[in-house]
Specification:
about 180 residues; about 15% strand; about 30% helix
């Protein structure tokens, strides 16, 4: 995972690169080879101000504190997952979202030796406006839009597995409306 993130980040940061950032997915693989997405996210090339390189990608070769959102500090995936999966962290540092992650990923947590329920894999790619998009009708799209498209589709196909909180499809109170209209 670390090598892949560094390789993709290097592609994103290359001088003249049209890349908008990195698109990534943490997933399981079934025996059939089917991918089961656990978490879909992105690390944009530019920070919130728009002009500066994102702190999430800056110094990624040697600094793992932010590491394309997978950093070891609190408010980053590995740091917050560690707080939920391993004892000894201040209670205010244990975030509910990552308790869910720990329960999904590990057979026992919190514990000094968390053991994965099954192998976890990681995929990442640099994203440009010309990158192949999950929904051909849209043509090219921005990284942030592609992330939401993927999360939306994954939450529809894997609602009990996907760990994303944002961008998921929630059951509508009007879910039966098309059926009711068809009956009239």
């Amino acid at each position: 995972m670390e090598g892949l993130i560094r390789k993709v980040a290097s592609t994103v940061m290359q001088e003249g690169s049209r890349s908008e950032g990195m698109l990534y997915m943490m997933h399981w693989r079934e025996n059939s080879g089917r991918i089961v997405p656990l978490y879909i996210g992105r690390a944009g090339k530019y920070g919130k101000g728009g002009g500066n390189i994102s702190a999430n990608l800056l110094g990624i070769e040697t600094d793992m504190s932010k590491f394309a959102r997978w950093g070891s500090g609190y408010a980053y995936h590995i740091g917050d997952l560690s707080a939920a999966a391993c004892p000894g962290h201040a209670s205010e540092k244990v975030v509910q979202k990552y308790r869910r992650w720990a329960q999904r990923l590990f057979s026992d947590a919190p514990t000094l030796t968390p053991t994965l329920r099954r192998p976890v894999y990681f995929w990442a790619t640099a994203w440009t406006p010309d990158s192949y998009n999950i929904w051909n009708d849209f043509g090219s799209c921005f990284l942030s839009f592609e992330e939401y498209l993927l999360i939306g589709v994954a939450s529809e196909l894997f609602p009990d597995v996907l760990l994303n909180n944002e961008g998921v499809n929630w059951p509508s109170p009007h879910a039966e409306l098309p059926t009711l209209l068809a009956e009239q």
